Amino acid sequence: MPTLKRVTEALMLPGLFLSAAAHASLERDAVYNLPSGVTPLSHEIYHLHMYGLWVMIILAVLVFGTLFYSTWAHSRRRHPVPAKFRENTKLEAVWTIVPFLILISMALPAAATLVKAYNTSDPYMTVQVTGSQWRWEYEYPAFGIGYVSSIDAKSNEASMLGSPIKPQDVPHYLRNVDNPMVVPVGKKIRLLITSVDVDHAWSVMDLGVKKNAYPGFINEAWFTANRIGTYTGQCTVLCGRGHSYMPTVVKVVSMEDFDAWTKQQLAAGHTLHIHDGCDAAAAAGDAVLKEHPAPDVCGPGTKAHWLGTGPARHGK
Ligand SMILES: [Cu+2]
Fold first, then answer.
1. Is the pLDDT of residue 183 over 60?
2. How is residue 145 annotated by DSSP?
3. Largest Cα–Cα distance in the chain?
4. What are the phi and psi torsion angles at 105 (to 5°)?
5. For a surface tag, which of 118, 216, 254, 304 has the fewest beta carbons within 10 Å of its beta carbon?
6. 38 burial type by CB count under 10 A (0-12 exposed, 13-18 middle, 19+ buried)
7. Cα(181) to centroid of ligand 1, in Å?
8. Kind of pairing, strands 181-184 and 247-253?
9. Minimum mean pLDDT among 1-10, 110-119, 189-198, 280-289: which range?
10. How far is the centre of ligand 1, averaged over its atoms, from the C-alpha of 304 (Å)?
11. How many Cβ atoms sit within 10 Å of the Cβ of residue 189?
12. How far is the CA of 23 from the centre of ligand 1 (A)?
């Protein structure tokens, strides 16, 4: 029912508007509501959100309705002699049991969805996501691919003070990157998310993923995108001056396109590489490091920033 959908969207709070605007697919305009997304999990999250929203709307109407009606009908003018009763056991039982049942009806499906969201078992592949000020780094250990994903040059230029390029003239301003994450459609992708400096968060609402990236910790997430397309998000933990300049872009492509992309990346030299400065970690037997364009991230004497799992595959 499109009208119902529009009414629901119009009722969304400004906060939701902001979050939805920041997490839109590049192929469609921002919507006011949480996007339903393109993964089974994101659909579930959307339905939970809508269910909670309607429960809140109905309760708000009932509670405020009763409040306003009582204020009007039981004012001193209309109702000069107050009623004398004090307790009503039946009523008290009802207003305890009904909210309890409502809470249970929200908690059970939410818990079931959470359990699914945390089940990262049996992925088709793993992508290691490393946040840094102010870009993302993606590593595909199984394919030996690794590269940095920074904001696209046009957005960057337009954002400069006194730039001749106007932000409104840049398509997908602040929502586009040079090297997006690329994944095959219909496959379970496991993400291992961490950071090398401050707290960041990797978030793409269309994929039902929003996970914080902490230095020294590895958070897990997963998604199975069921539709080919380009999906965007933004870092959602305030991480400093360039916080708005580290968008997240994920391209979901067909298996053939993904195969072609992996070959292209290897040919372009976007490979994992044991860095000289990280030899110690390599000697420990489990480090998969990539050559980093910023030597301070993994330079001589620095600690290995990524301990990979599985067989180390090195390019170059
Ligand atoms: Cu950030």
1. yes
2. E
3. 90
4. -65, -20
5. 216
6. buried
7. 17
8. parallel
9. 280-289
10. 21
11. 23
12. 14
107 near 48, Cβ under 8 Å?
no
pTM: 0.73
CA distance 225 to 67: 46
Backbone angles phi, psi at 97, to 5 degrees: -70, -40
- CATH number of the domain at 125-283, please? 2.60.40.420
2 CA → ligand 1 middle, Å: 35
Q: What is the average pLDDT value for the chain, to the nearest integer?
A: 81
Q: Where are the domains of the chain?
A: 2-117, 125-283
Q: What is the 194 CA–ligand 1 centroid distance (Å)?
A: 12
> 2-117 adopts what CATH topology?
Helix Hairpins (1.10.287)
Q: Is the pLDDT of residue 225 over 50?
A: yes
Cβ proximity of 288 and 139 under 8 Å: yes
Closest to 243 measured CA to CA, from 179, 151, 157, 305: 151
Computed from CA positions of residues 73, 77, 78, 84, in that sequence, does the dihedral angle turn out positive or negative? positive
Distance in Å, CA 198 to ligand 1 centroid? 8
Helices 89-117 & 40-73, crossing angle to 10 degrees?
160
Ligand 1 center–CA 262 separation, angstroms: 27
Answer whether residue 276 shows pLDDT above 70: no
Cβ atoms of 157 and 150 closer than 8 Å: no
Q: Give CA–CA dist 26/228, Å, rounded.
A: 12
| Ligand 1 centre distance from Cα of residue 177 (Å) | 15
Which among 182, 158, 160, 181 has a CA at the least distance from the CA of 171? 158
Q: Name the DSSP letter for residue 277.
A: G
